[in-house]
Amino acid sequence: MKDVMTQTIDFTLNGKAVSAEIQGHWTLVDLLQQGFDLYGARQSCGQGLCGCCTVVLNGKPVSGCLFLAALADGATIETIENNEETLDPVQEAFIEAGAFQCGFCTPGFVLMTRQLIAEIPEPSEEEIRLYLTGNLCRCGTYPQIIEAVQKAAARMRAA
Amino acid sequence: MNDQITQIRAVGQSHPRREAREKVTGRIEYIHNLRLPNMLYGKIFRSTVAHARIVSIDTSEAAACPGVDMVLTGEDIRKIMPDPHFGVMFHDQPVLALDKVRYVGEPVAIVLASDPNVAAEAVALIDVDYDELEPVFDEMEALSAETFVHDELKPGIPEIQFLKGVRDTNVGFPYQLRHGGDVDKAFEEADRVFEHTFRTHPSAHVPLEPPVTVAEPTGAGLTLHTANQSPSFVRYEISRLLGWPQHKIRVRVPYLGGGFGAKLWIRLEALVAAAALLAKRPVKVSLSMEEQFYTITKHGATLKIKSGLDKDGRITARKCEVFWNGGAYADIGPAVAFHAGMTAAGPYDIENVAIDSFSMYTNRPVAGAMRGFGHPQLIWAYENHTDMMAHELGIDPLEFRRRNILREGKEHATGTALNTSSVEKVLDRVAERLQWGKPFERGEGTVKRGRGFAIGIKASIAPSTSEAIVRLGADGSATLMCSSVDMGQGSDTAHAQIVAEVLNMPVEMVHVVHPDTDVTPYDTGTLGSRSLYHMGHAARLAAEDAKAKLEELAAEVGAQPGSNVPIWELFARKNGMPVGHVVGTASFIPDGHIPPDPMTGQSPHITPYWMLGATGAEVEIDTETGRVTVLRMINVADTGTQINPKIVDHQISGASIMQLGQTMQEKVHFDFGQVTNASFADYKIPSMLDIPQIETSVLDGAEADGPFGAKGVGETGSFCVSSAIANAVFDAVGVRVSEMPITGETVYRAMRAAAGEPLEEE
Questions:
Q1: Mean pLDDT, chain B, whole residue set
Q2: Which of B25, B647, B696 to mutate to test the interface with A (most CBs of A within 10 A)?
């Protein structure tokens, strides 16, 4: 439609300089899906409460379903698709621990686990639970996620 | 294949899920991600009243909204579906409301637009005039109400045609079981009689990927790309609605972002199919989280249970009456009433049993199957009841159960014996893990601790069918084609392991084709923990058939039996090049099923296998607030041989966490039929902070007739969580909560009432 307000934004997406023509109401999830065919950030609860839409913007995790794309002009965005060639220790640990069932929440958990380990290299179980409490898993894979986080942290400390 | 090669062990190994890499990189395929060229987005206009005649629907403003392609109402659907009512058991649910609406949230119209935001805006411009009717919300009120949700019952499947044309009732389906002698006489002769009533409230499945369907008109007919647990049924039902041959409808299902029963039978498929055919363009409908609460719920129920006991504490008589709040349309509710009704008396050896189980129509959103198929609700009733009687009699709950459990080889109340499943072993295991006989730290000051346990039983649905095709190629790789849906339970991985074991090849050499009804054969559906047993057998038999055909090929091309001519060479000798396939097929229906007598529910062979579970719980209660913290949960499951032990463990703990949420915090609240907490802001599912220490303990003796001794486990962890926690709460503070969820408020109210200082009602 012609009367929809559009604008162009420039930003860095998974290490590459990109630009996109966006509509004013687009969220980061809209931007990634419609502009770049990236579906790892997923809208689920639509209220920023489940963590399925997690995107890392300028080094900080944000809810992609609430964050307006227009505000990402000039930003650096990392998504779950940022390292497809080689799995990182977090992804490997999630596979080894069996830390997902349906997988819909997994990108959000992986991204948040990376943040957690960067901030707290040796997290206690309590710290893991507190840090990841904003990410929900309806399949109830929490015990295995805790195990995966501990595994990944140990491996990254040893590296 | 040949015998000189070492047998590869695929079964019994904890292989990672085969799609693990795609899941951790976010590249896994869900319908959620699907966009087709020229696609329209549909947004549903929903009823704002619970029960009303539709006087008029004005869609003119919405249709005139710039960017809107079409607005459709129930009358438009009739142009393409002559009788647009669908349902797996009753043909009672309109694709879009016709003449009447029967619950708040019922789809009345759909707006189609190229931009989903435009569709959402235009929906708000639709105006409907209603002539309101008296609604009925409660399952017990529905029993005696003068208002009827449906004018007459509309049974679909042949087995329930006796209900055709029945009027003036809200009972959708009555199930009954009569076992042993005269139950009333047994109550008269009993030394003690106990009677209790329990309630559970509706809860929500809320898979994180809400239901989503894309319908695509094609030259040949129609393709449905849909997040659905029963693709074969979708094809059947859409073909029935359209009056088309089934081959013109293709149903394709990749991975699901969770199911739990929310994505069974028809959800959006009929509506999206009709919309796409009328618009002559692909149409996608993705439900929002809020809409999930209006689309499918887990049954709330009222459960009455009465037991007569002799002077030795043996239960001699039991009467159960269960009323399931099924909402406005039947869906699978009657089967829940039937199937859960079968085991309403529990895993106990009771001489005289009478069970009546009713699926009730009300003006609430539809209730369907959810992980456990009604059993968590039933077990809530009978395991609370068991502990209450033990307490009244002054007998230890473990000892009381030991006196009454069904022993191996004995007939269950259905008339079918328990053979390979042992209630005694499950009970002993949970008692052992709780160290039941040993002293227990009971807390101090205002914080009290308690522990409890519960046991439960479920039959598999029967009869049901799984078909499979295994294609074995000249390069030695295999392809399994089946319609089981991997929604997170790991069926692709388990079925591949079974095929790999039979064909003696590494599991990585087995490809599993996702459900695509153009290619994958019939399956009843991925539900009720049936796939591993039924599809496991079909995959095994199809692989054995392929193996036999390869041996025939070897003989045909002159290879000596037992020789080690490589597979490629066998094909090269036949086809001139190392190309081609042998194709194995199988159709599996468990042997020997005998339908239960409709009057008594009795059958000597009612289920191919039993599922048994137990949960032990330790809780801590702040007596000043009633707040309950579950500290430890032990889930015992009778699993049969574990095809993939790690996935089995995760299924059991995952099911128990889901049930923990429904026990402690999840409840769909209604106000005149309107859901007042339809979001994750108000409806709280468990987070990582809500879970206790969880342990899994399996009894993995082979299931006699299972594939490699295996059977289903997806639901077992859900069975006993609620009643184990209720029993632990009683142990801690001496009050009984008879209605789920067990919130701090309910416990505190019960404590104050017990102390003779009840709080005022809200």
A1: 96
A2: B25
pLDDT computed for residue A3 by the predictor:
58
Widest Cα–Cα separation across chain B: 90
A139 contacts on B by Cβ (under 8 Å) = 258, 488, 654, 658
Which positions of chain A have pLDDT values less than 70?
1-4
- Please report the pLDDT score of residue B1 as a whole number: 43
Interface test with chain B among A25, A30, A44, by most B beta carbons within 10 Å: A44
pLDDT digits 0-9 by tens, B331-362: 999 999 999 999 999 999 999 999 999 999 99
What is residue A43's three-state secondary structure?
coil
Helix, strand, or coil (residue A10): strand
* Domain coverage including residue A149: 86-158
Which contacts of B121-124 are long-range, i.e. CB under 8 A and separated by 24 or more positions? Answer: B121/B65, B122/B43, B122/B62, B122/B63, B122/B65, B122/B67, B122/B68, B122/B71, B123/B43, B123/B44, B123/B45, B123/B62
Q: Other CB atoms closer than 10 Å to residue B417's CB: what's the count?
A: 14
User: Can you give the pLDDT at residue B2?
Assistant: 44
| Non-local CB neighbours of B133 within 8 Å, separated by 6+ positions | B51, B52, B53, B100, B147
> Cα separations (Å) of B82 from B95, B453, B724, B762?
11, 53, 50, 49
- A36 interface with B at CB cutoff 8 Å: no
Q: Give per-residue pLDDT as tens, B457-492.
A: 999 989 999 999 999 999 999 999 999 999 999 999
Residue of B492, B487, B534, B541 whose CA lies nearest to B512: B492
Separation CA B575–CA B572 (nearest Å): 5
Using a CB–CB cutoff of 8 Å, tell me whether B27 touches chain A: yes
Residue B682 DSSP symbol = T
Section B90-104 average pLDDT: 98
Could you tell me the fold of the domain covering B34-133+208-258+262-292? Aldehyde Oxidoreductase; domain 3 (3.90.1170)
CA distance B33 to chain A (A): 6
When pLDDT is cut at 50, 70 and 90, the band that residue B624 belongs to is: very high
Q: How far apart are CA B304 and CA B102, in angstroms?
A: 27
Q: What is the pTM of this model?
A: 0.97
What is the largest distance, in Å, between two alpha-carbon atoms of chain A?
56
Closest CA to B710 of B723, B724, B718, B698: B698
**pLDDT tens, residue by residue, B48-68:** 999 999 999 999 999 999 999
Q: Give the residue-averaged pLDDT of B651-656.
A: 98
Estimate to the nearest angstrom the gap between the alpha carbon of B373 and the chain centroid: 5
In whole angstroms, give the CA distance from residue B371 to residue B54. 35
Contact B271, B215 (CB under 8 A): no
Nearest to A102 among B290, B487, B655 (CB): B487
- Give yes or no on whether B34-133+208-258+262-292 and B297-461+597-754 have one common fold: no
Q: Are residues A75 and A93 in the same domain?
A: no
- Region B81-96: mean pLDDT is 98
Q: What percent of chain B stands above pLDDT 70?
A: 99
- Per-residue pLDDT for B270 more than 60? yes
What mean pLDDT comes out for the span B364-381?
Answer: 97
Cβ distance of A102 and B32 shorter than 8 Å: no
The torsion region of residue A61 among left (phi > 0), alpha (psi -120 to 50) and beta comes to beta
What is the total residue count of chain B? 762
Q: Domain boundaries in chain B? A: 20-29+464-588, 34-133+208-258+262-292, 297-461+597-754
